[in-house]
Write a structure and sequence with these properties.
Layout (H helix, E strand, L loop, with lengths): L5 H14 L4 E5 L15 H6 L7 E5 L8 E5 L4 H7 L6 E4 L5 H8 L5 E4 L6 H12 L4 E4 L4 H5 L12 E2 L2 H4 L3 H15 L3 E4 L2 H8 L1 E2 L11 E6 L4 E5 L6 H7 L3 E4 L4 H6 L5 E4 L6 H10 L2 E4 L5 H5 L3 H28 L7 H12 L5 E4 L4 E4 L22 E7 L1 E3 L2 E2 L2 E7 L6 H18 L2 E3 L4 H13 L10 E3 L8 E6 L18 E4 L2 E4 L3 E4 L2 E8 L8 E6 L17 H18 L5 H10 L4
Parallel strand pairs: 1-5, 3-4, 5-6, 8-13, 11-12, 13-14
Antiparallel strand pairs: 1-2, 2-3, 7-9, 8-10, 10-11, 15-18, 16-17, 17-20, 18-19, 21-28, 22-23, 24-27, 25-26, 27-28
Helix pairs in contact: 4-5, 14-15, 16-17
């Protein structure tokens, strides 16, 4: 008999913990690769609690020592969502970073308690910090042999067996052999014998391989071990490897079953091995240390070269963006004609956008779950519509849509905020949108010296909002992959601080980023304008040293009904008109009839 309530599942987990002589357990959203998005087989937190967000964790005590004996930990992005999805009778709601699982357990569990964690789902630095925090209270953090949720999750899905496929070298712009040789050179320079590549997008990039194991991200469940002699082992379920992929990988890559991964780590005794603590789970460190390897904490050597796109990848992005832009225009026209009736809801809108994108045979997937946000939902930057939260788009309101597509030659990510008639937007809506637009333009036109990082640019996007005494709580820009992860490091544009990894990474020519300032009025409306930009070298007369700027890649009209031209400088009006001239030039050849007429009207000079 399947456990159909979250109360029954929580009770079953507690009984399993008691059977293992554990007084508690920590449940993250994670897989064994520390992925942002995880396959259905790894959705343990969702199964246990009902929480469907992309960031959060839970702590469960086997006995109710105080309070409910269980807590959910989420940040400000999910304050509303966690309360809608997780039963308040079963879990306390805790805010991150003010607290976290270790701090909460230290407060609620008794001295001498044994708290379990799955070392194949947590980072090593989290495990070390949590053990230290709990140790001060006489509580032991215990790595477990097997996840206790898996023991009670009776209908847990199996990991995907979708076949992995070669990614054409012409689209990648570099061969896998070239990439592996570059990493081998790095290993020799650093004095390492090997490195363990654990992030799924890094393995996919390194091997010029793609897969279908995780929704929205074309990766295959796999690990790679790369040696200083240029050879590599790929650990992947054998059923996933076609003869075409084996031939593509070549003789220098040994394909081994995924089950051989831990024994291979144990075989590295006496070797000097580089492992990225931000991307590799604690279990990998434990296995290497137990084997007697020298473990060196170093950034994944695929991360930076993956972020710097080859000329082939850059052109692929331009091509993908052009196709994607035509789909979004068809959608925005449809919204403008149908949403004012009040009969279009958020789920219908998201499905319609997917339908328009699907007109392109090159579309492989969406790049993330579409944020189709009406009314007050638009004020939730990471809103995810489902059957429970779905609402009609109200007439005379703002509608925000953040979406993207996965194409063989590029990954797209675009946000457009539009006014749904009848009537006119309020003066406040127009003011806030215009200030967001001004920040977007400031960043799009930025020129900066080589060595500048995203933290130094972030203020450009916020300055006009700050002048009005308002701000937004998310980063301004994240890296984007090439037919890979829509959120990619190490670069980002954000306020400086430890919570924003990559803020201090200098930007380099070839890096893709989003440009997405916003404004959110809780319960009423939200605004975000997002285009993707490519970091490029720029020429400045009499410049001293090398300088960089951005090439905008996303071309879709912006809603002029939400713009106060009087707040724009002449330079900003010129940017608007030049941008929309490019939109028309790129998209008009792909459109006809009513779609083309709509585009022409939206691209008229401001």
């Amino acid at each position: 008999m399947l456990m159909n309530t979250h109360e029954a599942r929580l009770d079953a987990l507690r009984k399993e913990l008691q059977r293992r002589d554990l007084q508690g357990f920590v449940v993250p959203i994670s897989d064994e690769h520390m992925s942002e998005y995880v396959g259905s087989y790894a959705q343990r937190l969702h199964w246990l609690t009902g929480f469907a967000g992309s960031a959060g964790s839970a702590a469960v005590l086997a006995g109710q020592y105080s309070g409910k004996g269980a807590a959910m930990f989420t940040d400000g992005r999910y304050t509303v969502q966690v309360r809608e999805q997780v039963d308040a009778n079963l879990y306390d709601y805790e805010d991150v970073p003010a607290t976290g699982p270790a701090k909460w357990i230290a407060k609620h569990a008794p001295k001498g308690a044994r708290i379990g964690y799955d070392a194949w789902l947590h980072g090593v630095e989290w495990a070390e910090a949590a053990a230290k925090e709990l140790g001060r209270k006489g509580i032991e953090l215990v790595p477990l042999d097997g996840n206790p949720i898996d023991a009670v999750w009776e209908d847990r899905p199996a990991p995907s067996l979708a076949q992995a496929v070669p990614h054409d070298d012409r689209l990648a712009g570099r061969s896998s052999a070239d990439k592996r040789n570059a990493i081998a050179d790095w290993l020799k320079e650093e004095g390492y014998d090997a490195t363990v590549v654990t992030a799924l997008d890094s393995v996919a990039w390194l091997m010029n391989m793609r897969g279908a194991d995780i929704a929205n991200t074309p990766v295959a469940l796999s690990y790679a071990l790369v040696r200083a002699d240029g050879t590599a082992d790929l650990f992947i379920a054998r059923d996933k490897v076609s003869p075409e992929l084996a031939q593509h990988l070549g003789n220098a890559v040994t394909v081994r079953d995924r089950a051989d991964f831990v024994p291979a780590l144990e075989g590295l005794a006496g070797k000097s091995v580089a492992v990225d603590p931000d991307r590799a789970v604690a279990g990998i460190f434990h296995a290497l240390e137990k084997a007697g390897a020298t473990v060196n904490r170093a950034e994944d050597p695929a991360v930076l070269p993956k972020a710097i796109k080859t000329p082939a990848e850059q052109q692929g992005h331009r091509n993908a963006q052009a196709r994607d832009g035509a789909a979004v225009v068809r959608f925005l026209r449809w919204i403008s004609e149908n949403a004012p009736s009040g009969e279009v809801d958020e789920l219908t809108a998201a499905a319609k956008l997917r339908e328009f994108r699907g007109l392109s045979p090159d579309l492989k997937d969406t790049s993330f779950d579409t944020i189709s946000a009406a009314g007050g939902h638009a004020a939730l930057p990471h809103y995810k519509v489902d059957e429970q939260s779905n609402i009609p788009i109200p007439p005379s309101s703002i509608f925000l849509c953040d979406s993207g597509g996965q194409y063989l030659d590029g990954t797209t990510d675009i946000t457009r905020t539009v006014w749904v008639g009848p009537g006119e937007p309020t003066a406040e809506m127009i003011d806030r949108n215009t200030r967001v637009l001004k920040g977007h333009i400031q960043l799009a036109q930025a020129r900066f010296p080589l060595g500048t990082n995203g933290g130094q640019l972030d203020t450009l996007a916020r300055m006009h909002l700050w002048q009005a005494g308002v701000d937004y709580g998310h980063g301004t820009g994240h890296g984007v992959g090439s037919y890979l992860s829509v959120h990619e490091g190490p670069q980002r544009i954000s306020k400086s601080g430890g919570a924003f990894a990559g803020t201090d990474t200098p930007l380099a020519a070839g890096m893709l980023l989003s440009n997405e300032p916003g404004y959110y009025k809780p319960g009423e409306f939200g605004i975000r304008i997002e285009n993707l930009v490519l970091t490029v070298e720029v020429d400045i007369d009499n410049a001293e040293g090398a300088w960089l700027g951005f090439e905008t890649l996303t071309f879709v009209p912006l809603d002029r009904r939400l713009v106060d031209k009087g707040l724009l400088t002449q330079s900003e009006v010129e940017w608007w008109n030049a941008y929309h001239a490019q939109v028309r030039a790129i998209l008009a050849p792909q459109l006809e009839g009513g779609d083309l007429e709509w585009l022409e009207a939206e691209c008229a000079a401001l």
